[in-house]
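Async update (no meeting this week)

Hi team, since we skipped the sync, here's where things stand on the single-chain job. The sequence we agreed to prioritize is pasted below, unchanged from the tracker. I ran it this morning and attached the output directly underneath so nobody has to dig for it. Comments welcome in thread, and please keep replies under the output.
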Amino acid sequence: MTWLIVPGTLLLASLLFLLFKRRPPALCPRCRKPGLQTALRIPAPGAKGKSYWSYHRCPACAAKLRCKDDEWTDAPDEEWDRMNLPK
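Output:
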């Protein structure tokens, strides 16, 4: 029975590490500084799977960005306001 305790403990410790490890902060595609904040993430209309749109704000360079299928573009102020995203 004791031969199960050591592997079980190691397995539990590795699972806890994977669950609670800290991820590095996201980098801004404009200024390459860490700290990019996600304001909103929504599934793309009519898309299935991993397709999504997300809106981000960089506190370092004040960029308002939109990401659609890993393509980064500037989010116009009108769209940012229409979505009621934080300023």
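Quick observations from my side:
The chain has one domain: 25-87.
The beta strands are 37-43, 52-57, 64-68, 71-74.
Reply here if anything looks off.
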